Amino acid sequence: MIEIAINFTPLFYTVLDCQPYIICNDMKNHFWSNLCKGGILTCSLLLGAPVSAQKAMEKGYETISEEQGKNYVEFLADDLLEGRDAGMRGGQLAGKYIASLLRDWQIPPYFSAGYAQSFDVAMLTKPQHGRWEVHPDSIAKINTTTAYRLRHLNNIIAAIPGKKLDEFIVIGAHYDHEGMEADILPDGIYNGADDNASGVSAVLQIAKAFRQSGELPERTVIFAFWDGEEKGLLGSRYFTAHWPHPEQIKGYMNFDMIGRGPVHKPDHLTYFYTASHPAFGDWLQADMKKYHFAFDPNYRPWENPVGGSDNGCFAKIGVPIVWYHTEGHPDYTRPTDHADKIDYKKMTDITRAAFLCAWRMANQKKF
Ligand SMILES: [Zn+2]
Fold it and tell me: Same structural domain for residues 89 and 16?
């Protein structure tokens, strides 16, 4: 039995003291089972004095650091991870690494099967060369042909339970990249430091900050690391297709490339958000004044934000989104997207600003 000395509020204790709670009958594997059945967290939390919400937020905020973010990017973008191709060895290693960090911080998996939300994808081979399919019916159809590709992918999904068990926010980034091509010289490994080790580092730091704040959020916060984005948003497509109650997700925050910027404007950040939720823009404007972050946002309210990255899958099911993106650069989708070219100060400040936004998404009654 593991005991955790942390200042979670008494309500968390009350909730944990209960029997496993199933939020969605049709989603049987719920993380409350993990919490209460001797998983990572147990009912024997050692409680300290409750801290104020503001202090808790500051406590979490202060855990975010440039050094930590750099460590994550440098590992994920190392040649040893072979470009993190979805379903291949390097991609699987990246998933294992992310899960090991979450486990170390005692942030439980959302699904009782563990951190990996596993699924298959299939694609016809030449000459019918098509796209990767994630839907079981499409895969079944492909399976009847003579030659097809099949890969086993893993989203990594963790969650911090909220006081409300029927309201969620999701914070996500894809961890896969383009893999490698051994016959390209001098370097055939698509390291994907900016795309998207940078985004993964932000979700990891935000997850840790929520955990170390010592405060139970109002809404349940899901941390999602998508597989197969580069092959057609496969991980986020699978997750949203199998999520039973879209209206329960109150917001989705996406990171895809937050460590570089256009050559002529290195401090640029494109800040996309669902236009019907102007609060998302107001929050960042207020935080820019207070914190003087080392980036310059271009505010982009978007009527129907279905393109570009994993945010599209959430927008399609009616979830309001925020997407942090620092735009293309000469190393985009090239083997030269290396960790030593990342602007870590800028990446860290975007992570900090996003944590403040996520904290409001998780805790404010309405937005
Ligand atoms: Zn990307």
Answer: no
How confident is the model at residue 142, as a pLDDT?
Answer: 85
What separation in Å is there between the alpha carbon of 155 and the centre of ligand 1? 15
Regions in the chain scoring below 50 on pLDDT = 1-34, 36-49
The CA dihedral of 158, 162, 164, 169, to the nearest 10 degrees, is: -50
Reply yes or no: is the peptide bond before residue 254 cis, omega within 30 of 0: no
Range of the domain at 3: 1-50
Q: What is the pLDDT of residues 208-258, one digit of tens each?
A: 999 999 999 999 999 999 999 999 999 999 999 999 999 999 999 999 999
CA of 315 relative to ligand 1 center, distance in Å: 17
Looking at the fold, whether 33 and 114 belong to one and the same domain comes out as: no
3 CA → ligand 1 middle, Å: 38
31 and 104 assigned to the same domain:
no
The Å distance, Cα 198 to ligand 1 centre, comes to 10
> Each residue of 293-307: pLDDT tens digit?
999 999 999 999 999
Q: How far is the CA of 143 from the centre of ligand 1 (A)?
A: 29
Q: 113 CA distance to ligand 1 centroid (A)?
A: 27
Q: Angle at the Cα of 80 (from 310 to 226), degrees rounded to 5?
A: 15
CA dist 359 → 48, 154, 352 (Å): 21, 27, 11
The reply to whether 353 falls in a domain is yes
Query: How far is the centre of ligand 1, averaged over its atoms, from the C-alpha of 12 (Å)?
Result: 36
